[in-house]
Amino acid sequence: MTPDEALRRIAFLLEWRGASPYRVRAFHTAADAVRGMPPGPVDAERAGLLRGVGPVTAQVIAQASTGAVPDYLARLRSEADPGARAGWDLVSASTGDCHLHSDWSDGGSPIEEMAAEGRALGHQWAVLTDHSPRLTIAHGLSAGRLKSQVEAVAAVNSRMGPGFRLLTGIECDILEDGSLDQDEDLLGRLDIVVASVHSALRSEPGPMTARMVAAVRNPHVDVLGHCTGRIITGRGRPESRFDAQTVFAACADAGTAVEINCRPERRDPPDDLLEQAAAAGCRFAVDTDAHAPEQLYWQSTGYARAARAGLGADRLITTWPLGRLLSSRSSRR
Prior knowledge:
This protein is α/β, with parallel strands linked by helices. It folds into 2 domains: 3-80, Orthogonal Bundle (DNA polymerase, domain 1), CATH 1.10.150.110; 90-332, TIM Barrel, CATH 3.20.20.140. The protein has helices spanning 3-17, 21-34, 44-47, 55-65, 71-79, 82-93, 111-120, 143-160, 184-187, 205-216, 244-254, 271-279, 299-308, 322-332, and strands at 125-128, 165-173, 192-196, 223-224, 257-261, 284-287. Strands 1-2-3-4-5-6 form a 6-stranded parallel beta sheet. It starts with a helix and ends with a helix.
């Protein structure tokens, strides 16, 4: 086990326990810092000089660099129940990620870098889901720019070769009347559509419920993104209010997956709503909502939450082979 693997495993187990998102993110940050470090022993003092590495993570790095299981990881493993192992099995079964951004909207990296990192992580596929036009602060894609991006994705795939495919997609705003913020014919040309609410998040429950139900019933929509819109770090943002039973029943009926958003500041849906969606029979997409290549590694924490909710791989579309994902998409249109 390399130091970065040990740090990621600790982040997973901390998420499993419901630890502070700051603690979870700290271990991911340290893993990013050491991923390119040459093999061989490194002492804690030297490790602590790396950006994003603190005293606790430095000790983990030092112990793992010698081939030992770090004390911190050993303790978390000893305290974990058997369900944690099932969660890590889901991480190993992951085939893709339905939600990532590039520098075409508010991401920080070119399309090819995001695709290359997905392949390096072991994914078979990933979906490029830059924002739709209404989200101007995120440089959302007009119809013309989205058409150009579809061509750019084809070019990236031709250079990537076999074994990995970047899928065309969009994170499309759900407008206040429940319609989607992009040309319907163009949405029909995409491989995967994630639909999310980004505006009027404090609407009354009735209108918000109707808005979301209309969107998830749209045959072009495959995934309901970060359903409450909450932010749980910093100044935060409260959850949107809606009738969860009605929305999740509509998702289950339409075959629209509910996203388990892996960003530490979101953890969306919250545990109570995740359990409701599971009880409603929904499918799920464990998505990173990555805006940089290293954020693709956050997916493991989403699988921790999925396992804690009792979800198996068959209900997680991000563990499906590409053929099953696309055939399921086609059958819904």
